[in-house]
Amino acid sequence: MDTFTDFADALSMAAVATQEEQATVGFSPGSFLYKDLPAHVYHAGRESLSCSLLKPLLISPAHFKTALVQQYTSSSAKDFGSLLHLLLLQPHLAGQEVAVYPGIGNGRDRAYKSFLEANVLKLVVDEPTFSEARALTAKVQETTFKGRKIGLFLEEALTEVSIYFTEPTTGLKLRIRPDIYHPDMTLDLKSTRHGTVAKFGRDAVDMDYDLQAFMYSMGRSLYEGSATPKPFVFLAAETSAPHSIHRLTASESFLTNGAKKFQECLSIYKACTLTDHWPDLSSEGEIELDHWHQYTPSRAWMQGATV
Questions:
Q1: Domain with 34 in it: what CATH number?
Q2: pLDDT digits (tens, 9 = 90+) for 215-243
Q3: Whether the predicted pLDDT of 1 surpasses 50
Q4: Total structural domains in the chain?
């Protein structure tokens, strides 16, 4: 297996090794669970493949290779999602990792620019954004699922755990990081711009949440030695008012679709690793139009024309 070892990867492996005594050994050979592995250590690793690393393989092998060295890019949506995760799942880290600007952040404002420079290693959000995230966090905690408040599930669960395991068919080393590792289920927090289930569902397939649901369910089953995967539940929190919160369990068809993507990713990865060939999408051919793309002139403007 090509491990893509680099300096960052060496640091990651060393950090994992220092916590070896804290690891809980799983049922499947080579499986471990780390309760307190820092997020930056988990995400920096290349000695095992995460769901995020696998996703670009669904576009092309070259996209996978490119994603390995791409720098993380932030956006207001990503920052809000990260803030929501911290406040709900790791509130004890919020004071260390978040800097709140006292006012409305404006990229043209000198004081705000200075604040950004002074907190370059932190997640910077302005006061209104922080207040909105806190309110949404409280709403998620109070929302019920199966007759109980989600806050109660959180009290009974481990959050942001890291599980390393070996996929039995290919022998590839993989890793997952469940948001909420509850004894009865796995819950995953998603911030979404959509208020409806239908639109979130389309995003879920486009953004390969089905791949994530299958891979996380399989990894947990291998670690626990369970023949029946625990339910995988999305907590989809609408980022703007009125902040609808959907509790959506991954269905059999959703997981089956994810399984197909998972098998395709591993197959492509193994083949490209063996040949050391990582092709992109370059092609030669013709552009064909489907019938709904055909242009039909309407000349509606003529209806109002005067002679």
A1: 3.90.320.10
A2: 999 999 999 999 999 999 999 999 999 99
A3: no
A4: 1
pLDDT category of residue 20 using cuts at 50, 70 and 90: low
In a domain, 9, yes or no: no
Distances (CA, A) of 305 to 223, 295, 296, 301, 302: 73, 23, 20, 7, 5
Give, in order, the Cα–Cα distances in Å from 115 to each of 110, 122, 167, 173, 206. 9, 11, 45, 41, 36
216 within 8 A of 175, measured Cβ to Cβ: no
Residue 153: give the domain boundaries: 21-73+143-161+169-275
Q: How many residues does the chain have?
A: 307
Whether the per-residue pLDDT at 46 is higher than 50: the answer is: yes
The tokens for 72 are 């993380």
Nearest to 131 by CA among 97, 180, 98: 98
* Pairing of the two strands 185-192 and 162-166: unpaired
pTM reported for the whole predicted model: 0.86
Query: For residue 15, is it within any domain?
Result: no
Nearest to 9 by CA among 64, 60, 49: 49
End-to-end CA distance of the chain: 76
- Distances in Å between the alpha carbon of 185 and those of 38, 226, 245? 23, 12, 18
pLDDT, mean over the chain: 90
Q: Is residue 132 part of a domain?
A: no
Task: Note whether residue 251 is domain-resident.
Answer: yes
Mean pLDDT of 293-303: 80
Q: Would you state the pLDDT for residue 10?
A: 45
Six-digit token pair at 11? 């640091």
Angle ∠(231,83,117) on CA atoms, nearest 5: 150
